[in-house]
Amino acid sequence: MFDIDHWKEIFSSLKKNKWRTFFTAFGVFWGIFMLIIMVGSGKGLQNGVMTGMGDFATNSMFVWSQSTTKAYKGYKEGRRFSFDNEDTRVLKNEIKDIQYLAPRVRGYSDGSNSQNVVRGLEAGNFNIFGDAPVWNKIDPVQMLQGRFINEIDVKKKRKVAIIGEQVKKVLFKKDENPLGEYVRIQGVYFQVVGVFKPLNDNINFGGDKNQSLFVPYTTLQQVYNYGNTVHWFAVTAQPDTPVKAIEDEVLGILAKRHSVHPEDKEAFGYFNLGEQFAQISGLFSGIDLLIWIVGTGTLLAGVIGISNIMLVIVKERTQEIGVQRALGATPRKIISQVVTESVVLTTFAGYAGLVIGVGILEIINYALTSQGAESNSFRNPEISFSIAVTALIILIISGMMAGIIPAKKAIRIKPIDALRDE
To answer: How far apart are CA 42 and CA 39, in angstroms?
Structure first.
């Protein structure tokens, strides 16, 4: 540890060059400050997107049938075909890497804005979906009242429905309990057994979930005379298997079962959420890398400034260093002095930037939360503890680097020349 006189000499040199020291230290402050702000903002963007996806099973794909584009087995091109309940059984049995397989049937719509759901004098135009209980594992919703569809509902083809929060607002009075009440869906009465709200806002596969009603898919097949028709499947792969790995198997089995040419990829519409999620994750990884490159470059400019001011301080303390060398101070001791001074100056300026940067992020987060301005594009900008520790480590290393060149210059000073220096 250096004595008090030594530190007085250091601060005296800094005070003598106060403006140069201030602007140099500000460079380090600004580098860390901008790094913290950019990292926090990048995290805010990521939080917004990921929060909007809710608990959606991202390792999923969706597939539906379209018109064929190739003739095959006596069938002409342009043929329409539909999936069925047997496809559900075959896919489950033949592809072991499937974790969840959910059939979905879409309620009939004539494309108009006609009101398809009625209760008393109230009516609305809503999305009608026939689902299996497993759908709630792929695209989960939060149950506000009652329950979701269960296996008994599907097996017995019960006329039960769970309704979105917006559907409740349209069909029921504010304080009215919808559970046990009946709604008429295109002429058929269904009993309300649950009210839900979506857990994600970014993914609305088939329509706005908040304005939807879910009923057992077997019931919808019967009510609309669909037979055993399934309009599309949602497929989730096992946690250790990317959904891309089973995509070809799923399409291959469906093509074989419905006599579709093996190379007729246009006969199926499909959306691979796993690939989209991987692209989003890769995008944010790239943003993070760019932020660190820019932030570190800005910090490096400040470090160079610190190195320059330390060269000035070493020059002004030539006599002091010469006396220390004459009295037996080793080169290691001189180097440790200069490097320590550089680290202290860098850490002080950088820590101030770190604290103020985190403080500003907290203020922004508080403002967004209190004003209800959080969105699916920006939410909860934050800095993790590991990032803060990393920033401090960068500061210390930067301070050491800034002091190396001045320290080497200091040990090259000969005692006799230093004593003659004015």
So the answer is: 5
